[in-house]
Automatic annotation (TrEMBL):
Protein name (database record): NQR2 and RnfD family protein
GO cellular component: a single term: plasma membrane
One Pfam family this sequence matches: NQR2_RnfD_RnfE
Species annotation: Sphaerochaeta globosa (strain ATCC BAA-1886 / DSM 22777 / Buddy)
Transmembrane segments: 12-27, 62-91, 166-191, 200-222, 228-251, 263-282, 288-307
Keyword Calcium: no
InterPro entries associated with the record: NqrB/RnfD, RnfD_bac
Entry's Gene Ontology BP terms: electron transport chain; transmembrane transport
Keywords carried by this UniProt record: Flavoprotein, FMN, Membrane, Phosphoprotein, Translocase, Transmembrane, Transmembrane helix, Transport
Amino acid sequence: MNIQKQQAMRTVLYGLAPLCLAALYFFGWRFIAVLAVVTATGLVCEWLMFKRYGFKVTESLFVSCTLFALSLPPTIPLWIAAMGIAFGILFGKMVFGGFGKNIFNPAITARAFVYISFGVPMTAKFIGNATTLGFFPAGFGTWISQADSVSAATPLVTRSVGVLDLFLGFSSGSFGETSALLILLGGIYIVYKKAANWKIVLASLLSFVLLQTIFWASGLQIATENGLVAATSPLTALFSGSFLLAAFFMITDPVSASQSTDAGRWIYGAMFGLLTVLIRTFSTWIEGVTFAILIANMFAPLLDTLLKSAKAKKKQKSVQGGAA
């Protein structure tokens, strides 16, 4: 099989490598099984489209598969993981014409599909203890089963995990969202290597923290199943869930993001950060990252078109003014 090489995609994989190792360390060998099933399924889907329509199989596939696997909860059934990536690759990427033509991020398209279709498995939380989510050997060498879970989502639901545990990774959640430290290190690496645009990342972080701070400082009360609770502090909200992972590795996807102008990048990133806070706060979907990315992806082409058109008109007026 001839796979088109993409250095930027390979750089992203290098940035994700510490998160994969952490997933293996904290949650055991089941992560390897999930990653293997997801990658094999995604590769078959792209190969079939390649054979039928001549689309190229690119290294971006491995980034999509790795991101999707890292976004899944430790107890996800393997068959659901396979169905998710098949949907993401076929309907989030290949139906648009393959890499470079897709509107939506394939990994987040896959996550949205399984999140909506299989709500209970996607909101199951692994219950950690001293031998699983603590220090060595943590969960290394274990095999998590569905019996190890209860119906709950990320630490965004319980709000009982300390900031330090969220930062280091000693908390429950999806495979790749537990350690904010490793996400930051990998994210800074891909920004430094210019595989991700720093303007989109910074706009996402600033808008998220700003709106979350406003809600928290104003004493906003949020309706939950257990009654009204206060808005989460900005630091806890930032380190909880998959926002950091998405801000560095998903929203910066070079195809589905706004990339034509610097203004578009700032607006696009800010849109994602604000939408994440709003969806987390006022909707029943406690983890708002998935839908925030899809909405931002939808507006990216329009945003680029409007800004390029405005820039062209401004340039034309400038030329006409100079000629006069």
